[in-house]
Amino acid sequence: MQTVLPVVYAALPLVLILIFWALGRHGLGQDNRFLNLFVILQTALFLVATTWAFAAFKLPLGFLHGDYFYIDSLSLYEILVTSMVFLLAAVYSRGYVSSLVEAGELDGSILRLFYGFFCLLEMVTVLAFASNNLALLWIFAELSTLFSSALIVTLKARENIVAALKYVFVASTAMLFSFIGIIILFAVSKTAINGGSLNWTSLFDAAHNMDPRLFFLAFSFLFLGFAAKAGVAPFHTWVPTAYIRAPSAVAVVSGTVLNLGLYAVLRLYAIGYAAGAGINLRLFLFIFGLFGIAVAGFSMLKRTNTKKIIAFSGVESAGLLLIAFGLASATALYWALFYVLGYSLVKSLLFFSAGIFHRQYQSNKYFAARQALKLQPLASWGLILGSAAAAGTPLFPIFLAKWNILAVLGEVSAGMLGATLFFLLPAVIGLGYYFIRLFRQEPGGEIKAFRTPLSMKLPIIVCLTSILLLGLWVPGGLDNTLGRIVASLGF
Amino acid sequence: MMNTGITGDLIEVLFVLILGTAAFVITQRALRSLFTLYTIQSVILAAIAVVLFAEHRTVSLLFIALLTLVIKGFVIPAFLRRTLVVLPSKRDIEFSYLTPASSILLSAVLLFIVYTSFSNVAEVLFSDRLFFLGGVIGVSLALMGMMVIFSRKKVVSKIVGYLTMENGVLLFGLFIAEMPFIIEVLIVIDLFMLIVLSTIMAFGIDSSIEAFHKKLTQLGMRFED
Amino acid sequence: MNWNTAVYIVMNPLFALVLSPLVLGLIKTVKARIQGRPGPPVLQQYYQLRKLFHKEIVYSEDSSFIVRLGPYLGIAFMLTASLFVPMVFIPQTGWFGNIILFFYLMITAKFFMVLGGLDAGSTFGGMGSSREMTVSSIIEPVTIMSCAALAFVLKTTSIPEMFRTLLAGSIFSYPTLILVGISLFIILIVESARVPVDNPETHLELTMIHEAMILEQSGPKLALVELASGVRQTVLMALLINVTFPWGLAGLAGCASLLLAAVTMAVKMLILAATVGLFESLLAKIRFFRLPDFFMIALFLSFITIVFELLR
Question: Does B198 touch chain A (CB under 8 A)?
């Protein structure tokens, strides 16, 4: 029964690639709606398999002798978030891609490539979450860089190629440093485990035997790469460039790749904490976290592009999550994981709405959005409520998470709390100011409304309802899972 | 304890030459010489692996040497030279943020910093002084490659910088441990770069990444931000 | 002062003086041959010097005693510096040979040349002097770093001691000397004002550095200046040769061994001269503001050498 998971996660996307290739030979390669059905099928199956795994299987699960793949509560949780986001993006892309093809921004002949990379990206991200071996995770992370940049390149603009190249270079360079960290970690693990190992399980069990200084050295290198993938300052430079050029659906799924980076940092931190390097690691994470929030906050004040401001909001949240990890407290970690779920939904909501605006006004700039509430009411409310949620307004999940994290931070260090609040302020102001300006544009003349298909409206509605629900009530199942995850990590 | 045998001396000479090629890569402006320097660097790396094999007799070292020689000594430089066909200008003159002189000064400082940070943990990670030297040089080579990526504008030069980084990582890996996955991972990286190179050849991107922005701004068409 | 030292004091500078015009001539011939023309005869520099000694001196009206005194000071300092680098045999005395003093003696000689260039008050002279000083100040860290590298590797700052250590060992026991050799080669190119740093055969305003400084000299003074430059080049070449290829240097001062050593050194010097000529023909002169890049490589290589020695 367990074999369902590898079949779905690994075999299904590959089968789909073959189908896409075969479809091309039979002339069906240009039909967006038909291809999209397959993608929706895959993402739906991923979600179904994951929820079933939550309900039916006893975690943790190991696959492939020697446990190359290992799914425990944390991995499955992240996979759940990923599959939800991918499903929403797949549904959204049905209408979005049709509109792009009509406008000529996306070539019909590369539709199969687009959807192919989409499916492969989901596969690679999920498999990365499921990997036990750190080197394997590294390979999957590199592949995710490759596939997401390929997705960015599918649009016909030259700037897209430039943005994709910047992404590839920043991410791959940082990942090479991570690889140095992996090598060091392997050497360190040899001191604690016979023959050395790169598996999360073995490393975590043997952590107390490791020398904290050595682990800290390995961690500093490893952090570089995964922080770049997560969009942590100062490695975040690719995030704004890539996110404004990518099609909205792609921007949404790139958010899951950001989660991958933070996931790796969390696992490494857990091992380091067990090894006794907690104090140094906390300082390390605090510095990067605070720096990220500051950079993002001040960058948000002067933005004129909707997608860029959403991207910087992602940088800010990565910084906050790093601080939450560094607190080494069960409560903070619980709410940090809750934040991951909530923020993925909020970000998707924002990008979906921004995408509709882009189709309507052919531009991402705030001054182009005239009569927004009249022409695109759903998307406008999506942006308003989404930005309010991202800033941390009550009744939304981000508020709960931020409140609790900051509360724990206050117990640990008042100064740090003050600094964090100080730097969070510009972020909130920036968001608010931007969207107020956006919705107060003069009406101008007659503008033709963009007919938003249902497939683009549906994800927004789903996101809105879920974040409203999550903001009011944490489901029991979620509560149990998060509690289990926190315990399994040793906090 | 320093390995003073003939192999130890030979490896030291090779280290010296590798750092020399890295220093030249930072300052070279002609694209063709960049590629030649990279080829020389990879050949020296293969030679180091062979000398290590002669000393320690681990078969995987020979395999790594062979792989390095074939992929990085022949295949990748061939690819690189083919991209020159689509590039209009064969020189990379502009430097952003770091001039060559300051890059080299910075590399010297970084070498020193790497040495000091690794020296505390040297006993655990490295078997002897020569290996420690190799590890330090590997990381320094990676850092110098990174400086090339950040100071150059043309994509092809950035790729050479990236490949230099990869050589540095491989050098580091040779001297620290028996890494099980290292060969597969490095193949993945090489494939990656080959794909990026083919993209460049296909799309014919050439000029510096910033040049697009400048031209677009001049024409008033730059909408980013 | 014993016999050994006395012979050394006479022989070493004499050797440098006699050999330098030959070296200069050989470099010119090599360059000319590569360019496809027969070039001047190899002994031409001797004839040139003899001609200059017979010409009258003309001083500019605005010049002071510096132009009159400068060439004497220059050659004096250079010959003193040439004492520091054993070319034929290694003296037993330890009075002189400090490498840093050696380089600063050469710099003092250059200093008086620069003053002489400024003294006449012409634009060429001022321009040449300022360029020469710029290049010199940029190459100085490289020089010091190379000295430090040599000192680290060979565990002494006395040049004769270094040569003695090298004679006893081999290049493979000091593999990092390859790097120091490269740095010394770059220093040689800079100090002797060769392409790619400066073209010694040009008289175009845009490209002159060293030549502009000595434009005001004439007659025997010019001969002395040329001789001083030649000695500077020869001495640096001797340093480079003995650091990388010391075999042939005599440890003792026997008659036969002296002769053999002199001949060996002359041959090595001529080979290096041909190499320099070849190197000059292969490169173009570097733009003035790109010179720091060129020097930085030399600096970097010396620095690595020091680090390597630290790690030994």
Answer: no
Tokens, residue C265: 């050194």
Report the alpha-carbon distance of residue B126 to residue B120 in Å, rounded.
Answer: 11
Short-list A108, A114, A101, CA closest to A154: A114
Evaluated on CA atoms C171, C176, C178, C181, the torsion sign reads negative
Phi-psi region of A362 (alpha: psi -120 to 50; beta: other; left: phi over 0): left
Q: Do the beta carbons of residue C261 and residue C245 sit within 8 Å?
A: no
Mutating which of B4, B7, B13 best tests the C interface, going by the most C Cβ atoms within 10 A?
A: B13
ipTM reported for the complex, 2 dp: 0.85
Q: Are C242 and C86 in contact (CB under 8 A)?
A: yes
Quote the CA–CA distance of B6 and C120 in Å, as a whole number: 59
Task: Report how far residue A57's alpha carbon sits from residue A204's, in angstroms, rounded to the nearest whole number.
Answer: 23
Beta-bridge partner residues of A365: A305
Distance CA B6, CA B13 (A): 11
> Which residue reads 């975690």 in tokens?
A59
Say if B27 is an interface residue toward chain C (CB within 8 Å).
Answer: yes
Nearest CA in chain B to A311: B225
Both structure tokens of A465 = 């309802």
Task: For residue B174, give the chain A residue with the closest CA.
Answer: A183
Note whether B147 contacts A: Cβ–Cβ < 8 A: no
Task: Return the H-helix or E-strand segment holding A71.
Answer: strand A69-71
Q: Distance, in angstroms, between C66 CA and closest chain B CA?
A: 36
Q: Among B65, B51, B61, which residue's Cα sits nearest to residue B7? A: B51
Taking only the tens place, the pLDDT of each residue in C161-219 is 888 888 877 656 777 787 788 889 989 998 888 888 888 877 777 777 888 888 888 88
Domain boundaries, chain B: 6-218
